[in-house]
């Protein structure tokens, strides 16, 4: 089968489309034929080696497809089952072998492309909004990159809870998209100081929680957006890793809390994964979340997908079609 492989860490040109042998599933494993594959910023970290993995590497952490065969001891899936997954590297391929414990059955009402567009981003939104800081009606949150795949899902979901959602985005078009997907107000960070704008929008009080997947470029100003005892959730570093050399900054800015969560910890147990998937699929089926696929690329053009993502030229979710 065909796959995208990385032989040496580097830029998008490091993504090589070629034949790859995968064999048969072993104990506790399933073989999956992809119908759609999700693209996420974490894939670029794996490609560059920021998050190092053994080489050669098939990147990608999210996909949807059908089960082709199962290994010994697998009783929860059978050939022909429709499944989706996130959180296990190796999705940029036509077919793959993966741990059965990482997959979930896909409801009939959710198609493969939608599933590939929401699994990683949607389950991240789930743990951020319901576990890291259980958002309650009436609270105010700030969500950076509100027009991205994660931002559109999180904005809609938070709004359905009853939160006031303030977002940031980098162009007038992205501002409008975020406003149409759950945000009450959206700040264009290319023309406004978002920290000043947040203070104005909240009457000087600040927000209860900031969700920041941007990283270095937004971290310190995000602290200025929080009310005393508020929580800074740094869940990504698209602009570079965050460093906090002086913890006293948290005290000076209001005895703030800071966390750097990972889905691998929230979904370490299968019951937690199933609970998150049930909540996510339910939100999609009810209409609380309306997934937005902004870009589709062929698997062979994965490098172009990475260039678009890193160049801030994407909106919503990006998927690859094998």
Automatic annotation (TrEMBL):
InterPro entries: ADH-like_C, ADH-like_N, ER, GroES-like_sf, NAD(P)-bd_dom_sf, QOR-like, Quin_OxRdtase/zeta-crystal_CS. One of its GO terms (cellular component) is cytosol. Keywords: NADP, Oxidoreductase. Residues 10-320 form the Enoyl reductase (ER) domain. The keyword Metal-binding does not apply. The keyword Oxidoreductase applies. Signal peptide: none annotated. This is NADPH2:quinone reductase. One of its GO terms (molecular function) is NADPH binding. Pfam families: ADH_N (PF08240), ADH_zinc_N (PF00107). It comes from Pelagibacterium luteolum.
């Amino acid at each position: 089968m065909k796959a995208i492989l990385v032989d040496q860490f580097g830029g998008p040109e490091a993504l090589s489309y070629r034949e790859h042998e995968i064999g048969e599933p072993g104990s506790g494993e399933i073989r999956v034929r992809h119908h759609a594959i999700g693209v996420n910023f974490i894939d670029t970290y794996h490609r560059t080696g920021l998050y190092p993995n053994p080489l050669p590497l098939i990147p990608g952490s999210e996909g949807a497809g059908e089960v082709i065969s199962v290994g010994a001891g697998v009783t929860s899936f059978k050939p022909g089952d429709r499944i989706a997954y996130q959180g296990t590297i190796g999705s940029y391929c036509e077919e793959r072998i993966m741990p059965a414990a990482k997959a979930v059955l896909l409801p009939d009402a959710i198609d493969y492309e939608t599933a590939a567009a929401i699994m990683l981003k949607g389950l991240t939104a789930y743990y951020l909004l319901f576990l890291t800081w259980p958002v309650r009606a009436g609270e105010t949150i700030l969500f950076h990159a509100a027009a991205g795949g994660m931002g559109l899902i999180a904005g809609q979901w938070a709004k359905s809870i009853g939160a006031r959602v303030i977002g940031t985005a980098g162009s007038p078009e992205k501002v409008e998209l975020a406003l149409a997907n759950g945000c009450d107000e959206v700040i264009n960070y290319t023309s406004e100081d978002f920290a000043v704008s947040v203070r104005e929008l909240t009457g000087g009080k600040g927000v209860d929680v900031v969700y920041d997947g941007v990283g270095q470029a937004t971290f310190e100003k995000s602290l200025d957006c929080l009310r005393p005892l508020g929580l800074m959730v740094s869940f990504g570093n698209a602009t570079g890793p965050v460093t906090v050399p002086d913890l006293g900054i948290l005290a000076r800015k209001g005895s703030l809390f800071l966390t750097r969560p990972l889905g691998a910890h929230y979904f370490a147990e299968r019951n937690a994964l199933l609970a998150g998937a049930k909540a996510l699929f339910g939100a999609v089926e009810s209409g609380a979340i309306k997934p937005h696929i902004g870009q589709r690329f062929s698997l062979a053009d994965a490098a172009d997908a990475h260039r678009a993502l890193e160049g801030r030229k994407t909106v919503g979710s990006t998927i690859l079609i094998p």
